[in-house]
Input
Amino acid sequence: MKLKYRRIPEETIRRLPIYLRGLLFSSQMKYKRVSSHELSEFVGISPCQIRKDLSYFGEFGKRGIGYDIEKLSSEIRKILKLDVVRKAVLVGAGNLGSAVLTYPGFKMYNFDITAAFDADPRKIGKKIKNITIEDIGTIASVKKRKIDLGIIAVPHEAAQKTADALVKAGVKAILNFSPCYITVPKRIKVITIDIAMDLARLPYYMPAG
Output
């Protein structure tokens, strides 16, 4: 099926991994097909929104029959370019970085963290889940390893310098856990996750008293 990459809303791309996760969970429960209403129950997104998001890329389901889970999962992986294993490098092996290295959920999306770096001599040489922490001074070696993705988990004052080093080392996209804005060339995609900032939104929705 020819995919129609055209004017895709950012929010649609953000939801595609959610649909993929729902499909994979459905498959684990031995489902072969799933309707938009059933998928909605797995992911908490309306059936109408699911159908609209998927329609940007083609026709994947049939009315009254639903979606073939294996086929739709494969198509979403192709859309997100997750149909091959994506290598990632982590910079910052503190508490957050260590948790990222041991998180099992990356395999679901074909991510493989193959290298990790830190500036702290006490961490360099240690192993976390079979990954040996390397000296940040040798991060240029990432280029030879054909690693496309960078993960930043360093203090905010070191984030920009780390991003610059990753870009120079050839990464094409960065997931930034540091609570700050970083600047990179336009060709590099950055997604910043600030857990504390997201948490700060929750009290607004809580009942008073």
Summary: Strands lie at 33-34, 61-62, 66-68, 86-91, 111-118, 127-128, 131-135, 149-152, 173-176, 189-192. The CA atoms of residues 156 and 178 lie 5 Å apart.
